[in-house]
Design a protein that fits this description.
With about 325 residues, the chain is of the alpha+beta class. It has nine helices and eight strands. It has a four-stranded mixed β-sheet with strand order 3-8-7-6. A two-stranded antiparallel ribbon has the order 1-2.
Length: about 325
């Protein structure tokens, strides 16, 4: 038999859980969502930059620890950020100049020769610069397209025409879809950072008000140290601008440009096995921020990143 007290306790617990999820206002027909969980920083070069700018600036204002160490950490973190962005921009420019441009040039020539031959010279000029691009009149169902003309192509020209990625659309679009998802995931992180730091994080008057102790910090009763679990509860306008200019904008622009260059390069790759290899090579540029973080960042800074969270004020719906 279940006692009446157990039933009452279960009902009260259910009511408490429902109240903790949604609270309805009496004078307005709106819902106030429950408190959002604190957002951790990404364990990469950009996350380290956010941690160092906010945390070390806070401790400098509060005069905690040695000022020389704080300034040195800020300087080395900014140097690492500039190095990461510079290498990524350099690699992007070289890929576009020496790799993507040459691949696009070669595939345009190969397809121009194929069209001119298969249509017996009955073509119209689509473009003359930077390369001559001719297309057959009437399409494949027109009167000029002749399948037997394929034998007039040389062996290399036949191989180049057959290895054009769009000749196998399902395979090519599968690889292209995965590459696009990879870049979109990175762009989504940029949007989340913009939303979290610039829109949802409250604006405070001073850097001294940016950090606060996390409620479940085991060392909350003691003095604040680098190992203390802290939360970004607010940011001054100057800090928001710095994060937007040095973290969010470069990350978004590099990823967007890499998405365009990558799609262009993959579309111009005339070898099916190289399509996979090229996609992996492009992802290497994106992962440079993680590689530098894992290779050169001291363990103490890694712990600081792990112990810093972003408190997000929920929006009313």
């Amino acid at each position: 038999m279940i006692s009446e007290g157990c039933v009452v306790n279960a009902q009260e617990k259910l009511v408490d859980e429902q109240k903790s999820l949604v609270v309805r206002s009496d004078d307005e027909d709106t819902l106030t969502p429950c408190e959002w969980p604190n957002m951790p920083l990404d364990p990469d070069t950009f996350g380290l930059t956010i941690c160092s700018l906010v945390r070390d600036s806070y401790y400098l204002v509060k005069q905690r620890g040695k000022r020389a160490n704080r300034y040195w950490r800020l300087a080395t973190t900014m140097y690492l950020l500039v190095a990461c962005i510079s290498i990524q921009v350099f690699l992007l420019s070289q890929v576009k100049r020496f790799v993507s441009a040459q691949a696009v040039h070669d595939i345009r020539i190969a397809y121009d020769v194929y069209e001119h031959t298969m249509y017996g010279g009955q073509t119209w000029t689509m473009s003359k610069s930077p390369t001559l691009e001719r297309r057959g009149l009437g399409g494949k169902t027109g009167p000029y397209f002749n399948v037997s003309k394929f034998q007039e192509l040389t062996h290399d020209e036949q191989s180049a025409a057959c290895r054009i990625p769009l000749s196998q659309p399902w395979f090519f679009f599968s690889v292209l879809y995965i590459w696009a998802l990879t870049c979109c995931a990175e762009i989504r992180k940029c949007v989340e950072l913009f939303h979290a730091f610039l829109l949802l994080t409250p604006r405070v008057a001073s850097v001294a008000d940016t950090l606060s102790r996390l409620e479940n910090d085991l060392q909350k009763d003691g003095p604040e140290t680098d190992s203390s679990t802290m939360v970004i509860s607010g940011l001054p306008l100057s800090m928001k601008v710095i994060l937007f200019v040095f973290v969010i904008i470069p990350r978004f622009c590099i990823t967007s440009f890499l998405l365009w260059v990558g799609c262009r390069w993959l579309l111009a790759t005339t070898n099916f096995s190289d399509i996979i290899l090229n996609a992996v090579a492009l992802e290497f540029i994106l992962s440079l921020k993680d590689l530098l973080y894992l290779a050169v960042v001291p363990r103490r800074n890694v712990i600081a990143v792990e112990n810093l969270f972003v408190h997000i004020e929920p929006e009313r719906e």
